[in-house]
Amino acid sequence: MRVVIAEDAVLLREGLVSLLERFGHTVVASVGDASALVEAVTEHRPDVVVTDVRMPPGFADEGLRAALELRGKDPGLAVLVLSQYVEQTYAAELLDSGAGEGGGAGVGYLLKDRIGDVREFVDALDRVAAGGTVVDPEVVRQLLKRRRDPLQRLTPREQEVLALIAEGRSNASVARELFVTEAAVAKHIAGIFTKLDLPPAADNHRRVLAVLAYLRG
Predict the structure, then answer these.
(1) Predicted model pTM
(2) What percent of the chain has pLDDT over 90?
(3) Domain 140-215 has CATH 3.30.300.20
(4) Segments making up each domain of the chain, as ranges
(5) Could you give the CA distance from residue 37 to residue 29 in angstroms, rounded to a whole number?
(6) Phi/psi zone of residue 169: left (φ > 0), alpha (ψ -120 to 50 degrees), beta?
């Protein structure tokens, strides 16, 4: 897998390069600001981008804006965004960019603390590169506490299932985590789609829209 990394902190950037190369991926460019990110992706056409949200010169949302700009030009570009804090608007905007009909390319939103769990981080990157949607478990937990509607319509078990879907889990993985059958998981997911008023569509597309129910409003 060919990766472009954008991170202004030199030690973290170099650490990400070493980590991904250790797992067999090729880092075609590692840059320290949003403008360089756009240039690197245009030149190298990677499979996936890993970028910080806040980057020079303003340390606001330059990294996210660059990622969204790049996805606007190439909807097939997978993007994994890293953030120091849970920022609801940023997470929603990123996931919206992958919520087109058919599910779009892979998107992910992880807190930087997640990098400490090497295997979990690499697995998340692989899922995003394969077209999946991954949301940091801590983001899910905090948003569950904040949101009341439409999530109040979900049963506690349906909320558990939706939280695991937001982490990028498959039905089989959700079933193993909750010690239930895949048929039970499918039934809960159908209930989630109904209660969140999600119309019939490709299953992966509706899963992304269900995750976005956490982040909008």
Answers:
(1) 0.70
(2) 39
(3) no
(4) 2-135, 140-215
(5) 9
(6) beta
What letter does residue 2 receive in the DSSP assignment? E
* Angstrom distances, CA of residue 100 to CA of 198, 207, 208, 210: 14, 12, 9, 13
Type of residue numbered 114? R
- Whether the CB-CB separation of 167 and 135 falls below 8 Å is answered with yes
What are the backbone angles phi and psi of residue 54, rounded to the nearest 5°? -100, 120
Amino acid at 105: A
DSSP element (H, E) containing 27: strand 26-31
Q: How far apart are CA 113 and CA 120, in angstroms?
A: 11
Quick one: CATH architecture of 2-135? 3-Layer(aba) Sandwich (3.40)
Q: Which amino acid is at 61?
A: D
CB within 8 A of 197, min separation 6: which ones? Answer: 150
Beta carbons within 8 Å of 150's beta carbon, 6+ residues apart? 195, 196, 197, 213
d(Cα 71, Cα 79) in Å, to the nearest integer?
8
Orientation angle between helical segments 34-44 and 62-73, nearest 10 degrees: 30
pLDDT in tens, 122-135: 998 998 998 888 88
